[in-house]
Structures are given as structure tokens and as C-alpha cells.
Amino acid sequence: MLFNSFEFLIFFPIVTAIYFALSAKLQWIWLLVMSYFFYMNWHAEYALLMAACTIVTHACSLIITELKEKKHKKIAMWGGIVFNIGLLAYFKYTGFLLDIVQRGCNLLGLPVTTPKVSILLPVGISFYIFQALSYMIDVYKGRVKAERNLFKYALFVSFFPQLVAGPIERSSRLLKQVTAEHRFDWERARQGLLIMMLGFFEKVVIADRACMYVDAIYGSWASASGAQIALATFVFAVQDLCDFAGYSHIAIGAAKVLGIELMTNFRQPYFAHSVQNFWARWHISLSTWFRDYIYFPLGAGRGGKLKAARNLMIVYTVSGLWHGAALKYVAWGMLNGALQVIEGWIPHSDKKPKFPKLDLFVHILWTDFLILITMLIFRAGSLSSALGMLWRIPTAWSAEAIATGFSSMQALCTGVCFAILFAIELIHEKRKTLTAMTDKLPVFARGALYLLGVMAIVIFGVWGPGYTAQAFIYFQF
């Protein structure tokens, strides 16, 4: 069930109404049932995988709690890790690994033919497995106590707003929230609905429209000019932000309506002044997960610059693999890691710049330029296509017109929406919120503004010409 579907617009109000009508003892049970119903709308059988992940990590956590010897606790923890990573590897990386073996055999001249496999990737498997693993590791580290009730823990793993694309929450923050009693609060619901409205605007009006142009250019990049590829890469950078941040905002807003607070997952990433700062703002729940469960255990920056660089490259190579089973994702991850290593090695002056705002502006532009290069690799069909596109940008100055399905009016509307998005991001960057700003308006004006926002989503998105609801990009990860 997509957030940007009519089914969800029916599902969410019904779930919410019944949730607040139930007693505290039944609320969390209702959420658990509805979370599994939500997930089973894609492929019902894959709910068994989520249940297996849940049961194994829950059992391992209880075993860790009961054992006395640390080495035995570690064995139990690693048993849970191996099971879940093995599950993830089978569904996500079997074809990739077989392809690497085939290429290696071809290079060595060995007459080996690996079997072709086609395994459907379960939606959100990377997200809920990482969330479950963080809980189990936290129990081992003594950061949280093991939850004895399997079904309450199952709700933590499967909570429907953030189930299939995050934010990847920690048990210390979410587990007690989803099982606590919540009563309806109009002000909280209003704030949650406004956050959801922002998410729908980002996804339906911007991302789903922008993908038409991006898909057309990237699908025919060999015939496109360098300027077209560069523009399509810029449009994709905005599309990717709106698609993923849009999902996060809908998830955060929906949870808030229910009385549950989820963590911020995006914080104006294109206002970052360095690549490191970009990753402190983009997909924050995943970045902090890698920091806490891979980078710190490896030693972080202890042991000198070379070890810090090694650990950073390991983290971002793994991050690339997490995003997809393809060489382009590995290259994308390694490039992001290498850029941060280089940033860390460049000497920085403690002297304040003469024009600090200009200096910040230049750093933001340079960072966005570097991120656009990584975005091109991320979006390209393959690593070889990405290299070909990067070559065409400075060398191909003329090309035939490519049919993008974009009329001049659609292009104008998209440009206006980009400008609105920039204004919203700028407001948030200045530590202000749309809710706080609209609260200063008279009630009538505020209501008219809300109605205008809903109409914009409907007219320019759902009921706009040629609109087709697109799955969220990060569903494939």
C-alpha cells in the first residue's frame, strides 16, 4: 500500500479512528494487526520473513539477557546477526554475487556458467532488519532491557508508518511509545497532518512529476547533450530528496497523529557546507546507524588518520552495498567516503573569513556540485553508463531533442514548485517551521492556506494531466 494512493487515504483515517476509540490494552494490538495488514498488501508471504526476523532477534535478545558469560552472550548476538544478514544477503545479493563469480570466471578463461536467478526483493527488508539488529545489539551492550513480550516487540519492528522506508528507529526511543496509551489531541493531530501535507507535496507534486523528465533523459543519455544530462541530474537530486524526505514526512506526520514521535530523517541537506555535513543531514537515521554499529566498533577515528580513513571507507562501502546490489552503488558509496577522507586531510585555517556569508555560500555550492556527481552515479543504469554520462557533460554540446513528456506549462509548474521547496527549506534552515509561521495568521487565513495546499496537491499531482503514482525510490532498498 503506497502512501500516495487512495487506499492509504482510506486506511489511515479508519486505523486512527479505531485506535483512539480503543482502550490502552487494545491500542497496541490494533496497531500490530494493522501494521502487518499494511505490509501484506504488497506480498502477503513476505510477512513471514519479517516475522522470522522478529522472532529470531527477540529470542536472541532474551538469551543474551539470561546468559552470564560475556562470550556466550556474544555467540547469541552473532547468531542473530548471521541469521538476519544471511536473510538479507539471499534476497538482495544472490544475483549480484553470482554475476561477480561469472565475471571472474570469464576473466580467468574458465568454462563456468553460473545460474540466472530472479528473486523478488521484499519491500523494506533492509530497513526492518537494521532496526531489529540495532535492538539486539543494544540489549547485548546493556543500553536497553530486553522486551519480554514478543508481540510488543513485533510492533516495534513492524510499525507501519516507518516500516518500509524508515526512519530506522532505535528501541530506546520507539518501543515504549508504540505500546503506551495515547489519547487523541487535536493540536498534535493538526501538526501531524501539516507534516503529512508537506510530505505529499514533496512526493506527489514534485518527485512524481520530476521523474518523468529524469527517466526520459537518463533512459536516452547516449543521445542527450551534456546540458540535458546536467539538468536531469539536478532535477534528480531534487526528486530524490522530495521522494525520500516526502516519505519520511508522511511517516513522521502519521505517527504524530497517533501520538508517536519519530526522529527527524532529513535536515535541509542541500544547505550542507561539506560532504561530511551533507551526510549529517541526509537519511540521518541510516547515517547514525552506520556510525553507532559499524564506525564506532571499528575504532572510529582512534589510531590516526589512516585508520580513520580506513574505517570511513569501510562504512561507506557497506552503505553503498546496503543501497543496492550493483557496482554503481559500491562506487557511489566509496566516492562519498573518499570525499570525506579528503575533506578530513585538507588543512583548515582557524582564521575567520573576511566575508563569512560569502564563504559559506561558496562551500555550499561546491558541496552540492560534488553531491550532484555522486547522484549521477546513483541514478545511472550502471557504472559504465554513469562514466559515459560524466564524459558527455563536458564534451557533448549538441544533441537531438529528446521527448520528455514535459510541456512548457509542466516545466513552468515544476520550476515554481522547486522555488516553493527552496523557500520551505530556507525557512527550516533558519530554525523556523511552517507550523509556527502559519499559526500567526488569523484562523480564516490559516484555513484558506491549508485548503490551498490540499488543492495544489490534488490539481498538480493526483488529478493532474498524465499523473501516475510512483513507488517510493527507497522501497527498492
Cα-based radius of gyration, to the nearest Å: 23 Å
Query: Tell me, what's the shape?
Result: globular
Structural class: mainly alpha
Can you give the helix content as a percent range?
over 70%
Question: Concise description?
Answer:
The protein is an all-alpha fold.
How would you characterize the overall build of this protein?
The protein is mainly α. It contains 18 helices and no strands. The longest helix is centred in the N-terminal third of the chain and has 39 residues, at 70-108. The chain is globular and about 65 Å long. The model has no long low-confidence stretch (mean pLDDT 87).
Outline the secondary-structure elements.
Elements: H1 6-21, H2 24-40, H3 47-66, H4 70-108, H5 125-141, H6 150-158, H7 171-179, H8 186-219, H9 226-257, H10 275-279, H11 284-298, H12 305-323, H13 327-345, H14 356-379, H15 383-395, H16 408-429, H17 434-438, H18 443-462
Considering the chains and any ligands shown, give keywords for the structure.
single chain, mainly alpha
